[in-house]
Amino acid sequence: MADEELEAIRRQRMGELQAKHGDPSSDQQGQQEAKQRETEMRNSILAQVLDQSARARLSNLALVKPDKAKAVENYLIQMARFGQLGGKITEAGLIEILEKVSQQTEKKTTVKVSTL
């Protein structure tokens, strides 16, 4: 065997042992990689279902209201996974979805005044 092959086998085995014994640095790195893969997957799905103007509007919303943008993204991804979308969503379509999400998450404030 060549030295390069032996070195590759050693590195692979060392990686397996570190993963098996819970090396904290590799565990943290694994979590970070998983989070990055999830983000890439979300962006890929959103790029497939939104046209450019709708994507820009969603990005602007994420700057101002990140929680609302995340809710809309989750809604769009869920609809895409279940095949409920019939093509790319335009900016007007995204506005309708934003209105639906706003109505669902609308917080009503009531003020009660009591007299002594």
TrEMBL record:
InterPro entries registered for this protein in UniProt: PDCD5-like, PDCD5-like_sf
Listed GO CC annotations: cytosol; nucleus
Record carries keyword Phosphoprotein: yes
Keywords on record: Acetylation, Apoptosis, Phosphoprotein
Domain of life: Eukaryota
Biased composition regions of type Basic and acidic residues, renumbered to the chain: 7-24
Pfam short name (any one): dsDNA_bind
GO molecular function: DNA binding
Lyase recorded as keyword: no
Region annotation (Disordered) ranges: 1-42
GO biological process terms on file: apoptotic process
Family: Belongs to the PDCD5 family.
Annotated function: May function in the process of apoptosis.
Name recorded for this polypeptide: Programmed cell death protein 5
Organism encoding this protein: Cyprinus carpio carpio
